[in-house]
Write a structure and sequence with these properties.
13 strands, about 25% helix, 8-stranded mixed β-sheet, 5-stranded mixed β-sheet, alpha+beta
Length: about 250
């Protein structure tokens, strides 16, 4: 059954329909995740690289923005370095401001926050670039099947983890075209961005997946999601971690 649905989604995606109308209101969340993973496997087989995972809907501000009150996951296929210029052809793009973590060893199933921290290789200031390819608020299952709005991640230079690092106490200041639009801190992300990874490792095990060595994990936004418009220049400074910026071509 799921295989047939995956084929329908694949064909729809090729014609630019990311939320197939035939499946509106018909999918469970479990089916949606299985479709997402199967579509990612097809994309990898066609030449893309699966480089890690995103955890979304982790902050109360984001949950209230979209009316869904539990975390979700998606797959990361593309990353760019800070200063990258995005093309103008994205589908209703936006950004989220978060820490991205890279892991030196696998994390599988039930793990503790300390095990997550001990496996850390680097902590990156980052933006998630999202595309609004359909209505996440009213069709969360279709959004998950379509890889949870994911387009790419913009990575600043990594900070090296150390025993005194407290990701829940990292503060961020975000500007758009030089104007401050928001501030936040790591405690907004499930109490600590590390907790996102604990949740993710457990959730992935339900689908026979895990966090692999060298995977990056986008842990969730400190603040609400913002739109991106042609010509925008967005920057964020994370205390004790570093900075990241991105520009959108006109």
């Amino acid at each position: 059954m799921v295989d047939d649905i995956v084929e329908d989604f694949w064909i729809a995606r090729e014609r630019g329909e990311y939320f197939p109308a035939a499946y509106v209101g018909r999918l469970s969340l479990d089916q949606a995740y299985r479709i997402q993973l199967a579509l990612i496997d097809r994309r990898v087989a066609a030449g893309e690289r699966h480089i890690g995972w995103k955890v979304g809907l982790t902050a109360r501000a984001i949950q209230e923005q979209f009316g869904f009150h539990e975390p979700v996951f998606g797959c990361i296929l593309k990353s760019f370095l800070a200063g990258h210029v995005l093309g103008p052809d994205l589908i209703k793009p936006g950004f989220e401001t978060e820490l991205c973590l890279r892991f030196a060893r696998p994390l599988v199933g039930e793990v503790t926050p300390q095990q997550v921290f001990d496996a850390l290789e680097g902590v990156y200031p980052s933006f998630e670039i999202i595309e609004t390819r359909g209505d996440l608020s009213s069709q969360i299952a279709l959004a998950l099947a379509d890889n949870a709005q994911q387009h790419s991640v913009i990575l600043g230079s990594p900070a090296q983890p150390n025993p005194s690092m407290r990701l829940d106490q990292v503060a961020v200041r975000v500007t758009v075209n030089g104007d401050e639009v928001a501030t936040g801190n790591g405690s907004a992300v499930l109490g600590n961005p590390i907790n996102s990874v604990v949740w993710l490792a457990r959730k992935l095990s339900e689908f026979g997946r895990s966090i692999r060595r060298d995977d990056i994990v986008m842990t969730g936004s400190f603040i609400r999601q913002f739109p991106l418009n042609p010509g925008d220049y967005v920057a964020a400074v994370f205390s004790d971690v570093g900075s990241v910026d991105v520009r959108v071509k006109r």
